[in-house]
Amino acid sequence: MTRPPTAAQRRVIDAADPVTGRLRGAESQLTALVKRGLAFRHPRPPHDHFLTPEGHRVRQGITPVPDPAGPGEAPAPTGVFAARVGGEEAAADAGPARRREVHSAWQGLLELRRMTNPGGGTDRPCGWERTHLVRAAALALEAAGHAPAGPEGGGYRVRETPQPEAVAVHEPDGAALRACAATLEGAGWQVSEHREPRTGNRYLLASPRRA
């Protein structure tokens, strides 16, 4: 798990604009938040700093966790918020509190797109998503109501691939797999369907759309 913010960093996060996530603070504190993935520096003047989706989660009292360690691994259960990539022990928990957290994270991500994409477009992934592919794709799926796989399967699993800017989405049910493809396409991802050479099972390759 990532270390919690320092008291000074937490004060900067708590003082962020509740709608845009815009930050005010000492340059050293803002730089530290960027390094920890809790904030980003806007590429256009005046180069203000804003909370990332993880930063918004911290502001709401939910600490972020890192990406899965490898292509076949899901994050260990920690009791803190993370987009569910499939395979977690807690994947069956889809109660109202979880749905609120996911909805809030998705709205924060859309705001991040609006603030950083040229022209303020929210119809395609932003830079943060391109550096957090697994979590970004999983958040799009979970926010749309798709069920992540539990430890025994029965839902989607998002995993890294050797290909740059591409994740694999596995779902044993063919109709559910096609529904996942439609969701990702609607969220601004390019999606293609493939078969595993050894098993013949179908899966998706998804990459963030650039234009």
From TrEMBL:
Residue ranges for the region (Disordered) are 40-73, 191-211
The residue ranges flagged as biased composition, category Basic and acidic residues, are 45-57
Q: What is the official name of this protein in its record? A: Uncharacterized protein
Question: What organism does the record attribute this protein to?
Answer: Streptomyces cahuitamycinicus
